[in-house]
Amino acid sequence: MTIHTIRPSSRQNTVRKTLVSRDCGPSGCEVDWLTSRQLETSDDIEAFIDFSLKQGWGDGLPLIPPTDARVRSFLAENDRYPDEVIAKMPDSSECTVEKIVINAVMAGAPVDSLELIIAAIEAIAEPDFELYGVNATTAPVYPGFVVNGPVRDALKIPYSYGCAGGVATRANAIGRAIRLTMRNVAGQVAGVTSQTTFGSPGRISGLLMGEWEEKSPWAPLAERRAGIKGNAVTAFSTMGTMNILDTTSTGAMAFLEMIGKSVAYPGANCFTPSMEYSEMTIGINPICAEIIANEIPDIEDVQKIIWKFASLPGDWLQDLHRGQVEAQGRIREDGRIYATPEPKDMVLFVCGGLGGLHALGLHSFGSSLSQTKSIATVVAASEVRASA
Amino acid sequence: MALIKVLDPTARRLDDNESPGPDAGIIGGKRIGFRVDQIWRCWDWISENWAEKFREAGAEISYWRSTNRSGEEGEEQDRSLHEWLKTIDIAVVGLANCGSCTGWTIRDAIAAANTGLPTVAVATRNFEDFAHELAARGGRSGLRVHVLPYPLNELAREDVEPVAEAHFKALVDTMGASLSEQEKAA
């Protein structure tokens, strides 16, 4: 038996650079900072939707035309140069601030969401996120994001009722901006660069939610994972949202057993032999979290309990399935296969409405590892002008 | 309706190497490396079949198995792949038989081709176009791709062996290889 444990690599997305020389100083440079190709089209919204689909830019929903003026206006409210390369994407295309802003404008994202979008892109571009596989796979996987810190309220990112989808908020446009960037720069286009068999609604709007830190009995996710206090985003790969209903349990152990057993099923990515390990992300509602923490205050103990139940008996699998997993050394001495190598690989956070009763299963893809990044704070130009 | 100008939201690498890379040439005396994975047993069976034929033609065979591509193990995989590529003369890289495994097959094939090795990627029919698309996006649009039927992994070994037999000559052609001096002369 050889369990392949998850340890972060030392590889980093270290592409940060600028495309325009700063030798002459920003004010002295007579360069056009926007270098994207410009195309002529109609200003009619319906015509622009058709145009964007023909160009391969769009997702089929209405888009705001990214005119030069709109892009410059968005940039003017942020402390970023458009030529800054944020990340190198799987096919080595360079994701610049300019490309992010163009996609953010198209999605209708608020101007003060740029740093969050940049942090999200930085996170998924880390080699350990394994975006190359996430993009290409037949699975429905897409990056999901959990936001911590005051930026949740500033950007109206939902963390209570309907946090995984359905709340009327411009945060939806932030999620879509990330999705459009995924489509147009990072290369996740169904039938072209992605072989996804079914896809997912999350590939249109994204999955961007907050952690309800104020209701969580534990430290915020970003602090637990990366020691980051304040604004931060954690990116994780997810096959979609899986609901776990429990109207019956009483007490922490019963809830945790139900959650653990529910996320463990043979067709879950974490039990296939295609990879020898994966993570599991789970959202726990505030009511349940409080009940759990009253009995089990340490979240590491909570992780251990869920982990113990998130397992399958090896002899439950068909021969061919069991044979491959066994060859990988994943059937342990107790005869069980565990969803993740270790309890720490259960990524837990608190979110959801006060109706309780449900937990949120977010199965990861293969060996894609979640990444946490801090979100830079920007004083908007309009605020600076107002205070001057 | 008025006309407006909009900025292109897409980015794509601009460089491309359209060359298929060097021919594999005469097989005798060469070290042929098979890149295999841990998903597709059909690819293990086919590569074993082809390896035996290459041995009979005087080649040495080695294998490199792709496993986990993230974390410390992924870092080690990168290192071991590049070390292995130094030990072979020809790379046969498979199997592109799903989305992510096509991704990694092509990525590893490009890594091999970029070292100057004669390289062929192996894909099943359903993933042929995807393999070419990813090769182009990876900067090697001319990458050689040999295509096997699909579905394949769903077959029993006795049904996969005839596929290996039937495709060997076509593989050799795709590689730009010849099994003997006489064949090359012909």
Structure overview:
The complex is a heterodimer of chains A (388) and B (186). In chain A, 33% of the residues lie in helices and 16% in strands. Chain A has helices spanning 45-55, 68-76, 97-107, 114-124, 131-136, 151-154, 171-186, 202-205, 221-226, 252-263, 286-295, 299-309, 319-327, 381-387, and strands at residues 17-18, 38-42, 84-88, 94-96, 142-148, 207-210, 232-238, 242-245, 280-284, 311-313, 336-338, 346-350, 358-363, 371-374. The N and C termini of chain A lie far apart (66 Å). The mean pLDDT of chain A is 92. With 186 residues, chain B is α/β, with parallel strands linked by helices. Chain B has helices at 41-56, 71-85, 99-114, 128-137, 157-175, 181-185; strands spanning 3-7, 25-26, 31-36, 60-65, 90-96, 119-124, 144-148, 177-178. In chain B, helix 3 (99-114) links the parallel strand 5 and strand 6. The longest helix of chain B is centred in the last third of the chain and has 19 residues, at 157-175. Chain B is globular and about 70 Å long. The termini of chain B are far apart. Classes of the chains: A alpha+beta (388), B alpha/beta (186). Chains A and B meet through strand 2, helix 1, strand 4, helix 3 and helix 5 of A and strand 1, helix 2, helix 3 and helix 4 of B.
